[in-house]
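User: Design a sequence. Structure:
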């Protein structure tokens, strides 16, 4: 039996600001989104696997006046994700914005030398985890005829780069799933956005190289990369565009980056 650890704070009344659910909120783009949406005055549901990090983030944001609910689960675990979303407190059920951010890259080898476990983790997180959260949250949006899904894809979803094979394929799937969902909800007030970041300096490369910090640092050498805040700014902008405006897709690259594989280092 799964236990869903809800951590929140009691307020005398709840504001009318948006409820924003962000997956993978303990680091990188997800953490940046948490801070940016909090600064926008929104209420946050933050998910992640690390309970301590989530609690630290909750304390920091609530100290600044943000209403925060944390859910500890891995998006790959459909049963626990389902339990957590279905048992949300009533005042948190009407999710306005879903930020499908949880994702990762593992390994950078030719496809014929790839690691099976790395492949499974990327596919289960980047594709199946996104699908799980979409399936759990979007039906409620359809019932209320309002909502916004923001999927964090990648420039890698447009064109494969050398040794990126499976990761690129998962982000290509994010693009296709975003496009497909946008078609499926076109008769409603629901909007779908696919963000496609280029080179962003977070813990992304450290995770990709299984903790090899020296190798990870070389990824960003000679170029001023994007930050998580840069991507979060775009997410907040898209979520707050006028109701008749749907920011369907945004490609965000660092200056001196022409594509996923073309990077000019100084």
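Assistant: Done.
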């Amino acid at each position: 039996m799964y236990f869903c650890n809800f951590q929140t704070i009691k307020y005398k009344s709840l504001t009318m600001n948006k409820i924003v659910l962000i997956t993978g909120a303990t680091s990188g783009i997800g953490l940046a989104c948490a801070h940016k949406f909090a600064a926008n005055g929104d209420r946050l549901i933050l998910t992640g696997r690390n309970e301590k990090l989530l609690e630290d983030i909750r304390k920091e944001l609530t100290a600044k006046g943000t209403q925060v609910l944390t859910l500890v689960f891995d998006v790959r675990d459909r049963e626990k994700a389902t339990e957590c979303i279905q048992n949300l407190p009533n005042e948190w059920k009407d999710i306005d914005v879903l930020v499908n951010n949880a994702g990762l890259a593992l390994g950078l080898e030719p496809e014929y030398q790839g690691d099976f476990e790395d492949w499974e983790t990327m596919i289960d997180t980047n594709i199946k985890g996104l699908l799980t959260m979409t399936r759990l949250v979007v039906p409620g949006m359809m019932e209320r005829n309002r909502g916004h899904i923001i999927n964090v894809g990648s420039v890698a979803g447009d064109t494969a780069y050398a040794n990126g094979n499976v990761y690129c394929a998962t982000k290509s799937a994010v693009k296709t799933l975003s496009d497909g969902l946008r078609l499926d909800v076109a008769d409603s007030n629901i909007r779908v956005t696919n963000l496609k970041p280029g080179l962003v300096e977070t813990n992304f490369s450290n995770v990709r190289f299984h903790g090899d910090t020296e190798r990870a640092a070389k990824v960003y050498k000679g170029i001023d990369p994007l930050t998580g805040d840069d991507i979060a700014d775009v997410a907040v902008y898209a979520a707050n565009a006028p109701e008749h405006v749907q920011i369907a897709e945004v490609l965000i690259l660092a200056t001196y980056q022409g594509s996923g594989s073309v990077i000019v280092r100084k």
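The helical segments are 28-39, 51-63, 78-86, 116-144, 165-184, 204-208, 213-218, 228-239. Strands lie at 19-22, 43-48, 68-72, 97-100, 147-152, 190-197, 249-252.
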